[in-house]
Amino acid sequence: MEKNHGKIWTGPFFVALFNNFFLFIVYYALLTILPIYILNDLNGTEGQAGLAMTIFMLSAIIVRPFSGRIIEVFGKRKTLLISELLFCLSTILYVFIDSLSLLLALRFFHGIWFSIVTTVLITVVNDIIPDSRKGTGLGYFALSMNLAVVFGPLIALTIFQLYSYKVLILGLATVIVIGYLSAFTLKVSEYSIETSTAKWYRMSLHDLFEKKVIPSGVVGFLTAFAYASIMSYISVYAETRGVFESVSLFFIAFAIAMMAVRPFTGKMYDTRGPNAVVYPSFIFYAAGLILLSTMHTVSTLLIAGVLIGIGYGSVVPCLQALAIQSAPKHRSGHATSTFFTIFDSGIAIGAFVLGIVSAKWSYSLLYIVCGVIIFFTIPVYWRLIGGKKGIRYSESVCNHQE
Question: Could you tell me which residue ranges the Major facilitator superfamily (MFS) profile domain spans (predicted)?
């Protein structure tokens, strides 16, 4: 694909950006509304509602390591169009589900295609973004996912309350089908390498994982582990402190802060290198978590949301860019799948372990623990990535190099 040097906001970038936004709108909308549907309409239990969430992530984590190999064998364009088509069909099928067993089976099936399509989209957008603007471009791309954290639940709850579950599903299906049709306009560059014709039975560990991504993956795991406390427990914690009705404001503050700093952090990554963004971002992130542990008022909740939005919202796209840039271009699919396998595992394991912490002690202690983990992640990052002198990534690295 021919690139516009230095230009990020091109037609193909918009198509990929909105596709990613729609995918995560569907993901977060279902994450919000399915527990209510299971409890009220399917007469399920809280445990079964949790299982429906877990099984989706489980299938995504299982398939994620194979995504890079699938992209390599079938090509980016074919993988994108097939996986997004099956993601669309999976979304439509929620309309017809009337039993818990069928819902769990669909959640597992849906998670497979979510894993593959989100991996290939990042690989495609990495080719679209000019080499000198990776930090900025991937930062804006990651913003589409983070904004869906706010808009997904907001759309789901609004439509569900005003209309019905089926109307919500049909609305989500319509949105994702529009995104799918727009994907046909993307001209995707393919890498012709010898391994792309290899047989599946000759797969090795190298075909599933990109070992050069492990350093950024380890840092991403710790980052995601702590973020599981926000995804899984912020609503319950807010309820215990009497500010449950303001949880949506927390995510709005999170999103506004993240969008406000994105132009600066992306440019800083491209001109001064990742360390200039990562270190202060971890400090903001940890400070927000520690502040959250002391939360008794709405103002404290919102300030914590701003700090976490600046920190978490800035560091994740940086780690994602580092992961992709650490591998050769033809291995970008493997790099992406490896990073998100480790990252998603951090969220899954974090939700489980932190649930034990909150049950045995308190939510306040849970957020203190998470803040300490993020402070601990700073020297881990320095040891694995930031302190490496003269380190060079692939040709798509940021302008500044040691």
Answer: 13-389
Residue 201 resides in a domain: no
Q: Are residues 172 and 230 in the same domain?
A: no
Q: Is the pTM of this model over 0.90?
A: no
Between 47 and 267, residue with greater pLDDT: 267
Distance of CA 274 to the CA centre of its chain: 19
254 closest CA partner among 219, 227, 216: 227
Residue that finishes a domain, picked among 187, 218, 253: 187
What gap in Å lies between CA 175 and CA 386, rounded to an integer?
40
Q: Distances from the Cα of 369 to the Cαs of 326, 336, 351, 358, 361, in angstroms?
A: 31, 29, 13, 10, 11
What are the pLDDT digits (tens) for 291-343?
999 998 999 999 999 999 999 989 988 898 888 887 777 776 678 778 888 98
Tokens of 265: 């952090």
Same structural domain, 225 and 136: no
Where do we find the tokens 């926000």? 230
Judgement on whether residues 283 and 335 belong to the same structural domain of the protein: yes
Residues 381/219, Cβ–Cβ less than 8 Å: yes
The residue among 187, 217, 236 that closes a domain is 187
Angstrom distance (rounded) from CA 344 to CA 42: 28
Q: Does residue 139 sit in the same domain as residue 269? A: no
* Integer Cα distance of 175 and 160 in angstroms: 16
Parent domain of 22: 1-187
CATH code of residue 245:
1.20.1250.20
The Cα 152–Cα 26 span in angstroms is: 7
**pLDDT single digits (tens) 180-218:** 999 999 887 776 554 444 454 555 555 567 788 899 999
Kindly report the average pLDDT of the chain as a whole number. 83
